[in-house]
């Protein structure tokens, strides 16, 4: 949570997600990076949309489109979220020497309120507590590092939620900032992974509360094995046997207060979605083809010459 707080690497597949990109390419997957809004891609051309550690807002038109793509075009989505807590964000402010101003984070590790807006049509929600710890799924050991938890999920015997014992890292962080001694944090059973299919003919939805295990800047131990299993489920409806341990039929939704954005941040001046020029963000690029200009192909035979 405190390592590389400014995200110097920009969260891109050519920087801190390069190992992730290389792993997927080596596994035979074709990957495209969406450089525009969700309005600018044809879901029928793709199997799975990955939303990793998002910090921007989602426009209402984007939310509506993704909902339609999942329900009608069989698009699946995989969400790798991260932490979000306004109290921790306020405590994490720091003095920036160049501007000589106190800077407060515009958002957390991920913009959980925005993700909740995107997932709301499907009855899925993430909370604002921050969890940390080591866990095991099947034969694999993973590390959950500054992640959020699932607080709301659709109840069904065909949907699955994975719980693991983790500690409240947010509580530890705030105590440390206040120079208070904290007893060894107790662990609690936390829902960290959810897998759902809204209907028989729809795409599938996967939500995992942490992205550090696929981010080379923050990675303690990669979870590419988990990503492979999630893609198999999202794209091919093949469910890893270890995920079947708990379906969501008895998932107890927590009636928590809706997570609010940090009001003291200047997020609007940095957001493409919330700016006055949001119409520019929503515009999709047009494909322009050149007019009949052809280059004649010439075949050259290269013959070695004597020097």
What can you tell me about this protein's structure?
This protein is α+β, with helices and mostly antiparallel strands. It contains seven helices and eleven strands. Helices cover 21% and strands 19% of the residues. It is globular. Residues 297-303 have low confidence and may be disordered. Strands 1-2-11-10-9-6-7 form a seven-stranded mixed beta sheet.
List the helices and strands and how they pair.
Elements: H1 18-26, E1 48-52, H2 60-72, E2 76-80, H3 86-91, E3 94-96, E4 101-103, H4 112-119, E5 125-126, E6 131-137, E7 140-147, E8 150-152, E9 160-168, H5 169-177, E10 187-196, E11 205-208, H6 224-236, H7 278-282
Short synopsis of the structure:
The chain is of the alpha+beta class. The chain is 21% helix and 19% strand. The longest helix has 13 residues, at 60-72.
Task: Give structural attributes.
single chain, 307 residues, 7-stranded mixed sheet, two-stranded antiparallel ribbon, 7 helices
